[in-house]
Task: structure prediction
Amino acid sequence: MVEGQAAIAEAALARPPGTPRGARVLTLLALAVSLAGCGGGQREPRGGSEPYRLSGAACLRMLADRQIVVGPWQTAAARGCPVDTAVRTAAGDSAAFSPPLQTSCAMLVAWSDFEAEVDRAAVTNLGSRVTTIRHFGSYACRAMTGNAGRRSLHARARAFDISGFTLADGRTVTVARGWRGSSAERRFLRAVATAACRHFSVTLTPDSDRHHQDHLHVDIGPWRRCGL
Result:
């Protein structure tokens, strides 16, 4: 990516207060065109059954239409873990990511489609909206946990590990404590997981196995599992 494109990305990610809505949309569309030429856009092999088969400029335009600001990042493609249309963002539709999220464009679109469910569950069970999604990341160039012979969906950034949520009233609910915490926290986290089971291919929770005691795993892979 050339220096001028990097400058656009950094300016967009900063989201200066008071930036007119129309100006932000134009910036996002310009950035989408830039990112489409930065190594993304590969098609997935035919015959797969993965949802969200989104790629390249078309996927980036979808994020721009939703005013989700993204920039590029470098993956470990040389080690066999390329990411189709890799993007970095500080926030989704309505909530920030802590830390900023590095993922695939397709995974970010999938999360954007789901984000309202998280907010709805928080308001219903905790009486406050979600302002920050806390997470352990999306991308990791590694094999599946418990199956060293197969690449993890994290190796293509088509998975996302959520560790907790910060609410508008200042509370933070973590999966590690809240899954077996107060009744309101338990209802909230299980409502999120139940909705995730309907939306994502795989949802894993602390009830799934010992590897998921402190986070919710969701992915857009070809397999189906609801770990409730």
Remarks:
- The mean pLDDT is 83.
- The chain has six helices and ten strands.
- Residues 3-227 form one domain.
